[in-house]
Amino acid sequence: xxPSEATARAASPQDARRFVLELGRALHALGSPSxxxxxxxxxxxxxxxxxGSFFATPxxxxxxxxxxxxxxxxxxxxxxxxxxxxxxxxxxxxxxxxVVNGRRSAKEGVERIGAVLSGPPTHGPWTELPAHILSxxxxxxxxxxxxxxxxxxxLCGFVVGLLALLAARARRFGRVFEPxxxxxxxxxxxxxASVASTDPGVVTVAGIVPLLPGLxxxxxxxxxxxxxxxxxxxxxxxALATMLTMAVGVGLGARIxxxxxxVPIAPLPQPLxxxxxxxxxxxxxTAFAILLxxxxxxLPPVLLAVAIAFLGVRIGGLVFDRELSxxxxxxxxxxxxNLYARLRRRxxxxxxxxGLLLLVPGSLGFRGLTTALQQDxxxxxxxxxxxxxxxxxxxxxxxxxxxxxxxxxxxxxxxxT
Length: 417
Prior knowledge:
The structure is a single chain. By secondary structure, the protein is mainly alpha-helical. The chain has two domains: 3-118, no CATH class; 125-404, no CATH class. It contains 18 helices and three strands. The chain has a three-stranded antiparallel β-sheet with strand order 1-2-3, covered by helices on one side. A hairpin with a 3-residue loop joins strand 1 (51-56) and strand 2. The radius of gyration is 22 Å and the shape is globular.
């Protein structure tokens, strides 16, 4: 009898059922896509000798669980889209494996899941503040900004970081955090454009890069690609709504800025040399690791994922168009993430999420909306089409990688057992 079978027979059906439900809720709260939540719940229910059927959306999880041959019980869990926390996600996977492999009972597993979710965040708010600064400064480099744009974008990142601290403490402000941050960034960009002749467009987008829902947009396309239409549609509309409110915030901030100062036509920025991009990618990777709440011990795979994405896009650009080069980057990151999950028995998201974050097309969609708000619908539609093309390329890369190098099963006994 292997440990998973022993655990399944020792656990009461009620404890096993509760563990499966709490596992799904926790995965959802830590930013997992709906199809991953469903797959994990199905695999875990089988390991605990339950028949389960699940349907997860960004706001609810429907579950039907029963003992073999028994009467099914239907449960509805109301949930809210969670934020990525790679540190807690790895801890959650470890707790799940402990229950499946017999090192912990299902009842103890429920308590441990609660402890993981209620525990302190992997990084405190004052650690995330410099991460906002570094990510905005790095984005300015990748967007073609010069030294002045980099400095002003870092200042905007500092302001956004302060507003994030306020949003963490005031729940009501958290509902308008993104548009308020976008308005403040656009206002600062206009002011410094009049003082230092910086490019307000580069500064604005770079300053709010950590807030753009590009990763949510890519996840929505991935859910649609695997025929998870309800969740993908809801997540896609949520991402578009966030971008739209941020675009309105930018419009308001820019308008207030032009009323306060006289903004001349800024000269084209002088981009930093290509030699700056490699160190910028490493600095941005560190910032991504903090914003995604990865543990410091997870920093090496995060840095490796960003390096793979950076090199994949550069190599892909030699063969494909700029937009389609994202396919190569996503494919390389997904292959590396799946191998990491197989060899280290850790969540593939530890590498996949930060790697994709470097590639997601959030800035393209945001530029499209802001351009459309300026009545330039032709240019706005071009940005929107490029966003869809890049997002589709990313999803295609992920799907092909999962076919050639499949991710590990959601639940499987330890090799030693």
